[in-house]
Automatic annotation (TrEMBL):
It comes from Nonomuraea fuscirosea. Gene3D superfamilies: RutC-like. This is Enamine deaminase RidA (YjgF/YER057c/UK114 family). PANTHER family: BLR7761 PROTEIN, YJGH FAMILY PROTEIN. CDD domains: YjgF_YER057c_UK114_like_6.
């Protein structure tokens, strides 16, 4: 568990290991130690990536093992400010990726990410 109260309240896991696959649930920019979130989309992306990194590490993976990414943002114009953070994590990995514009569960959320990874042998 990530420390997010959402997992207990809603009833889901931050990440699930299925054989050699790891599926990381939709992860936002909340800092789970303080349950706070920045109003800046780029900062939300950075925190979301730290949250994903922790989930991957707990499953024995890293960003290098990610094969699929889904980005969810309420506003399409908020995506480009996130690119530098995404490039730092995925620039050499080049996972398959999709960006969706959609509503998120809390109006403070501006960025959400889901990833699928393959566990190293």
């Amino acid at each position: 568990m990530s420390g997010s109260t959402f997992e207990e309240e809603i009833g889901y896991a931050r990440a699930v290991i299925d054989g050699d696959r790891v599926h990381v649930s939709g992860t936002t920019g909340f800092d789970y130690t303080t349950m706070t979130i920045s109003g800046d989309v780029a900062e939300q992306a950075e925190q979301a990536l730290r949250n994903v990194e922790a989930a991957l590490a707990e499953a024995g993976c890293s960003f290098a093992d990610v094969v699929r990414v889904r980005y969810l943002l309420p506003e399409r114009e908020d995506f480009p400010p996130c690119w530098p953070a995404l490039r730092r994590r995925f620039g050499d990995v080049r996972p398959a990726a999709t960006m969706l514009v959609c509503g998120l569960s809390d109006p403070r959320m501006k960025f959400e990410i889901e990833v699928d990874a393959r566990r190293p042998a």
